[in-house]
Structures are given as structure tokens and as C-alpha cells.
Specification:
The chain has helices spanning 51-68, 89-100, and strands spanning 5-7, 21-23, 29-36, 76-84, 107-113, 123-131. It is of the alpha+beta class.
Length: 133
């Protein structure tokens, strides 16, 4: 069974938090996770004004969506994280980092943005994952 190859090549910073490239072998199913923010099952915002609480809820929502697609956190190849400008990046990262630790970390794209679609949202997370069908 072919494995995803995560690359952290010489000449680029070596971080335990992210890899620089990933090669998904043929035959794996790709799962695209839409933006997950800090809303509960009833559509109510969780953690108003608290980036750590919102990051944790957004990650919980991501796990729920991944599970529904037959995937787990370890199957994520790339995360995209958008945070509202002025948010404490370290607080957000601290709330979710323990759940993401692994030997070959996924790719990460993080952006500070002027606004998000959900009023009061401070963070939105999306992902791409790959699993054996």
C-alpha cells in the first residue's frame, strides 16, 4: 500500500509543525473539507471573542466532517487556516496543536484576513485529506 510522502527538503526551514510538499500516490481517495468555523450543530457561534475556544470548536467541526467522509486527523494532507486580523495566533495554535502532532506533519497555509463569512467568527479552517478507498 503506497504512503503519502511528506517533504521537508534541505534548504528550507525544518519545522515540527508543517511540511513543505506532499505527494499523494495514485489510487488514494481525496477528501476536501469546506471551511469550518466555531458554530455548533444548531448554527450558534461558540466562544464569542475567544480565539482559542473558536479554534477548538472549528477543529471539532473539522473532525466531525472528516469522520463523516471516512477520514481522521492523520489523513489530512493540508490545512488552510484563516484568522481575523489582530487575533492571537499563538492562542489559536495552542488550542489545536496538540491534536495535530505527528512525525510527518501536513502542509499548512495560514492567513490573516479582514473578515470571515460568519458574523463574530475569528477563525475558519479547511483541509484536504487522502485515504485508501
Amino acid at each position: 500500500m503506497a504512503q503519502i510522502q511528506y517533504l521537508r527538503p534541505e534548504g528550507l526551514i525544518r519545522s515540527p509543525a508543517f511540511s513543505h510538499a506532499a505527494v499523494v500516490p495514485p489510487g488514494m481517495a481525496t477528501i476536501y473539507l469546506g471551511g469550518q468555523n466555531a458554530v455548533d450543530a444548531q448554527g450558534q457561534l461558540v466562544g464569542a471573542g475567544d480565539i482559542a475556544a473558536q479554534a477548538a470548536q472549528a477543529m471539532d467541526n473539522a473532525v466531525t466532517a472528516l469522520t463523516a467522509a471516512g477520514a481522521q486527523l492523520v489523513d489530512v494532507v493540508q490545512w488552510t487556516v484563516m484568522m481575523l486580523q489582530g487575533c492571537d495566533v499563538n492562542a489559536a495554535y495552542g488550542a489545536i496543536a496538540p491534536r495535530l502532532v505527528r512525525d510527518d506533519p501536513p502542509l499548512v497555509l495560514a492567513s490573516m484576513v479582514a473578515g470571515l463569512g460568519m458574523p463574530g467568527a475569528l477563525i475558519e479552517i479547511s483541509a484536504a485529506a487522502a485515504i485508501q478507498p
